Amino acid sequence: MSDFENIKTSQESGLAVLLDMDPYVAVCVQSRIADSRKPEEVKVNAKYLCDWIDAAVFVNSMEGNVKVVAFPEGCLQGFPDEGLGSMHPDIYYKDVAIDVPGEFTDMLGEAARRNNTYVLAQARVRLPEFKRYYFNSAFMISPRGKVVYKCYKHAVYPAEPSTVPHDVLKKWLKAYGEDSLFPVARTEIGNFGGVICFERDFPESARGYALNGAEILYMLSGLEPRVARGIWDLQSRSRALDNTCFVLAPNCGPFYSDVSMKDWKPGFICGGRSMIVDYFGGVLAQTLDTQESFVASPINIEALRHHRATSGRFNPLLNLRTELYTGIYKEPLYPANRVPRTRPERERILSETKKVLRKKGIIR
Predict the structure, then answer these.
(1) Among residues 248, 271, 254, 123, which one has the least CA distance to residue 195?
(2) Where are the beta strands (DSSP E) in 317-360?
(3) Which fold has domain 24-320?
(4) What is the pLDDT of residues 37-53, one digit of tens each?
(5) H-helix or E-strand spanning residue 112
(6) What DSSP character marks residue 95?
(7) Which of 37, 252, 280, 359 is the most exposed place for a label (fewest CB within 10 A)?
């Protein structure tokens, strides 16, 4: 059977497979973002997210069973390693990066358990195989309170000090294998993959998750001026249509320099407009401002599966002629295994890549 026909529940979730799935409610929370500079401040943010889970389920359960609550990038730690006065990566690794699973996901897991819902969130995390380097991870917690899924951001802005798998590709593949690059969470409410912020600019990531069986793309956050220019809406809707997937797109609310929320964080604005999109690229729900809020919509996975199985026109996955595209990516452009950690280091690599593109006549 194909991945679309043989949907299996993650063994870690310990939940039964529902062959005929009723529609359920998904919620995207546009939460405030507050920088954490030590573990006790991460704990403050984790408690705040737990309160949001309780509220989101309480309010939206009047419409139906709330089965997933999704948060934006920065929800647990903020962005103290980016922007003005940013932390050194070594200090961030020691004081702010977290283990997943760990203390803070246990807190979210308790909220997921008492509300009988999945939770999607993000954190910059430590991995035992990579000392000193931390990675940007989206993760899923089951209604049993356990982490059942993790994926990792594959593209970062020059100012982002977090490491991506491509930066350490040789060691990453040796440690985790190629299947770790676009993993999919198979649950009884559908199959999920995660696309984080700048990664939205690369259709290949969303397609990678879709071809591994994803039915719902968790596409979190986008920094301005992308929202104001319409790029946020365009990408969320395009990735849904391109891959015949639902898209859950929670964006960040207001930014604060610390968890006291007394001072705003200069230079960080995400523009809000959190949204949920269906597999035709239609907007099911969307906020219209930058304040703390949420959007909610019913998700009908059975309808998506029926469409995928019967449509010959509006399902690009059925018409994908993969042999045509392999040659495009045969030669590397952005070099792997360089492990940059600062903006100047990443910008030097971008300069090298520009030279390659000029040599090929791609840019002038």
Answers:
(1) 248
(2) none
(3) Nitrilase/N-carbamoyl-D-aminoacid amidohydrolase (3.60.110)
(4) 999 999 999 999 999 99
(5) helix 103-115
(6) H
(7) 359
